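Standup notes
- DV: blocked on the single-chain target, sequence here:
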Amino acid sequence: MDELIGAMQDGSVDRFRARYRTADALVIDDVQFVVGKERTQEELFHVFNALHSEGKQLVFASDRPPSQLDGLEERLRSRFEGGLVVEMQVPDRALRQKLYTHYLHEVETPEREALIAYLADRPVTSVREVIGNVKRLMAAADVGGIPLLVNLAKMELEGTAGTPTAPEAAGPAADTFFLDDEKVVWHLPDPGARFIEDPR
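- DV (later): unblocked, structure below
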């Protein structure tokens, strides 16, 4: 949609059409966002027809089935429903284990297998939740200056297992960050006269 808007603004719609109509495959996530956007639906309709007529692969993902996309043009709805419509199920334990193994592959932790087993045992509603959990745990370990262990994961995701403490080796690194002169407000001149600016 952003590309189409840009193409309409700078007069390069023909180049936009050529790019998408000559693709070998088209994969679009969150296709529900074309609902109510007439020009985008018009272009998607023609791209769909061009690729479908050449036997190219078309994959669309949405948060609802085509029949429930109110505001979707009937001609697009019929084309979407003419293909294989499949409801994506929540990740099972085997898939969760593979996902956590993939997203944690670069994370240094002495409890890798136990951590992945613990995380894989926790149900999630989507792959995005798995990614969110990984980012949350990595951030917690980074801020605390501690390794990513099962204890930390339990505390972050369940609010249990007590507060993890940084090992001695992490002490100097944490002190360097938190006691940096530029980050400590009482080292700045006249802190009482400083105000947080309103977001612009």
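- Follow-up: Residues 165-174, 183-200 have pLDDT under 50 and may be disordered.
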